[in-house]
Structures are given as structure tokens and as C-alpha cells.
Write a structure and sequence with these properties.
Shape: globular
Low-confidence stretches: none
Organism: Corallococcus exiguus
Protein name: Immunity MXAN-0049 protein domain-containing protein
Domain Immunity MXAN-0049 protein: 74-188
Number of domains: 1
Number of helices: 2
Largest sheet: 6 strands, mixed
Mean pLDDT: 91
Order of helices and strands: EEEEEEEHEEEEEEEHE
Radius of gyration: 17 Å
Oligomer: single chain
Length: 198
């Protein structure tokens, strides 16, 4: 049976928005985007963040500017149990908030974007305003992935479109059991749902 995967998207629910993680001792990270690149990251040491805007604390959020996933202990335990070989979990202190939180870093990425079956794929053109990005993906809507390009993975990012955090159906279901999520899940396998005319 074909495996089912979902993209983790910011949910339209009241929630806090967390700042880019930084070293707890002060200063900034040399590579603040390293947690969204789909690669193994060297232990960064103790980290901290703070809410940029007040809102309801959620068990899993990707609402900050760089889309770094931050999970509480319950949500982190899902990744720890079901995807121990696919993620790194780095403790992060959230200013003014008790409890344990973790940055969820997906360590794998795959050349798996199914351009033919995605709704729309745009790349940077050779005569565009960003010559250094010619041929790279500019926009993908209705993302679909080719599961034949994956190994036995539960969490990853698609190569070339690392902004998308992809999780298996098993991860999705377990996170929904935790509840109080700041994310929702968009299926990236199988046929598209038909558009509804308004």
C-alpha cells in the first residue's frame, strides 16, 4: 500500500509567534536558518527564543519568520518515538514560559518533488531579476512528492523546496492525538481534491 505524507503548515488559529532561536548565553547563531535545511546540525548548545506576539501557546508551531518547528514535550515525544533517525531535538527555552520545548530539525532531504502532479510549479527564469537562482523553485502550489524516491523515512524536507516540512501519516495522526497544535496538515501524496466553486 502506498504511504501517505503531509506538509506541515501554519494553522489559522490564535497562537504565539516565536522569534528566531539564539544562543542562551547571548548573541545570534551563525546560521539561523540551519534548522530548516534538511540536514544534520552540529550540537548548537543551549538555545532560547521569545514570543514575538502574544497568543495561545501551542504544542507544535512553525509560526516564526524562519519556520523553525518548535514542539513541547508531548509533541517532541512523537518525533522521538516514531522518527528517531529522521530528526534532532534541541532543547530551547521560551522566555516567560515554563515547560520543556524543543526545536525539531529534520535531518534528511530527498529529490522527490513530483512536478507533473503538483498543481503549479514555477522556477526562476533565466531573464528574471534573480540571476543567481535561475532554475530553482520560486513557487509550488499543491505540492506532490514521489514516494518512490524516499527510503523508510517519517520526517524530511524536499530537496530544492526545503521550506516544506513533510511528515508521514503516522506522525500526523500521533500529533493530532496530542492536540492543541498550531499547525495543520496538507496531504502531498495521492490525487488532488477537486476545486470547489464558490
Amino acid at each position: 500500500m502506498a504511504r501517505v505524507f503531509h506538509a506541515v503548515e501554519i494553522a489559522d488559529v490564535p497562537q504565539w509567534c516565536l522569534d528566531t532561536p539564539a544562543p542562551a548565553a547571548g548573541g545570534t547563531l551563525d546560521e539561523p536558518w540551519m534548522f530548516v535545511e534538511g540536514r544534520f546540525v552540529k550540537e548548537p548548545g543551549r538555545l532560547k527564543t521569545r514570543p514575538l506576539s502574544l497568543g495561545e501557546m501551542r504544542t507544535l508551531t512553525v509560526g516564526n519568520a524562519d519556520q523553525t518547528p518548535v514542539a513541547n514535550e508531548q509533541a517532541a515525544s512523537v518525533f522521538r518515538k516514531l522518527a528517531p533517525d529522521d530528526v534532532q531535538l534541541f532543547p530551547v527555552d521560551v522566555e516567560g514560559t515554563p515547560g520543556r520545548f524543543y526545536i525539531v530539525n529534520a535531518t534528511k532531504r530527498f529529490q522527490c518533488i513530483d512536478e507533473k502532479n503538483s498543481r503549479e510549479v514555477q522556477v526562476y527564469p533565466p531573464d528574471g531579476a534573480v540571476p543567481e537562482r535561475v532554475g530553482e523553485y520560486r513557487s509550488i502550489t499543491g505540492l506532490r512528492i514521489d514516494t518512490s524516491k524516499l527510503d523508510d523515512v517519517h520526517v524530511f524536507r524536499p530537496k530544492g523546496w526545503e521550506v516544506a516540512l513533510i511528515v508521514s501519516e503516522e506522525i500526523k495522526n500521533a500529533l493530532e492525538e496530542v492536540g492543541n497544535l498550531g499547525v495543520h496538515f496538507e496531504r502531498v501524496t495521492g490525487p488532488h481534491e477537486p476545486f470547489e466553486s464558490g
